[in-house]
Amino acid sequence: MKQQTSRILCVGDMHLGRVPSRLPRNLNRFNILPEQLSPAAAWQSTVQTAIREDVDAVLLAGDVVEAEEDFYEAFSLLDAGLRELIAAGIHVLAVAGNHDVMVLPRLADSLPGFQLLGRDGEWEEVLLQCQNGTSLHILGWSFPSRAVHLSPLESLPTLEAPAAARIGLLHCDLDAGPSPYAPVRSAQLRQAPVDAWMLGHIHSPSEFSASRPIGYLGSLVGLDPSETGRHGPWLMEVRSKTDISMQQLSLAPLRWESMEVDLSELEQAEDLPVLISAAVGDQRERLAPELGETRLVGCRLRLVGEAPAELDRVLAAAREGLDDFHHERDGVSFFIERITNATQPRIDLLAMSEGQEPPALLARRLLVLARPADDPEKRRLVSAAKEDLRRLHAQPLWSSLGERDLSEDYLVDLLQRSGRSALQDLLAQQEVAK
Ligand SMILES: [Mn+2]
Asked: What's residue 1's pLDDT?
């Protein structure tokens, strides 16, 4: 017998009307218009996807619009998309978040087929008939005012566990302690007879568990550089009450990434732009399988490791030229939003190794470690480290480390990294003491 599956598209915080911040100044060089990157563009492609995929329902988890005042444009885009969905025979249900207390009730009153759940802060449940003859319960609660200090779960009526799956739709502040945004504890959600909770409010999407998904859908588009990674609606497939899967669709046209670039191996500062280009290219390769409908990726770079001489000068020039940076492949463009410098100064080990102070002794050992493998002094250092680590691993506390293969390469790398880190610490202490 064919498995009976209901399919629902779940949409998190859209904030229609908001323009993503920190976009590059001259977007036109990417052949992209700002409105193609907006939540409204993502909403339109969400609507098209719902129709193409012929889903049973679209659920909106609140904060659908950014501002209740001055939202005429957002309102008409929302309205147009909802009408398309309804005309295609798709159920559309929403709960209001703290941003759309007024707008959603008004829209629900004027648009038959668009259903607001849990108006005035009263829990409400509807039974959806799906295309394959199955049904689903959708349970929801809407913000009655912009601030709600009590957990909505406190007023959840006693519910029977129905035969069909029950999906909860709620805008709330999860496990955040006291909050004006409907504070809720995970335990409360788990205790309720609800098979999946789709939440709005926090913009970073959750990892959903395989059997009983509970978590945040995330913003539909990353609205600023802190909203990194994949964003988009989630396709939920309900096979039974205990078999509900979630898959996020990469429909957001704009994506933010934060990346670390290690300068330790960079011989001269002049090569910084080449290293940055290569790092962005690598990132593109990593992201390729999940770029979906992404058009533009904004990268926030953090430089780490030991910096070569003259980095500041080259970095200043690189920052000046950021507007010209452009990496484009297969229709996806990358730009650099910001570069922060978290490097440490590179140590001149040779100069440092003069003298008898602890930093000098450490610097001399690091120089020894850089010699060829057959150098007798290096061999002594490495085998002493091997003995120490063996003894350590034999102790019960460290036994979980197991029988690590203490190869020469591993040991040299470990000693170099820990030695350099200790030397940086010693030098920093000296700076403070000065
Ligand atoms: Mn919110």
From this structure: 43
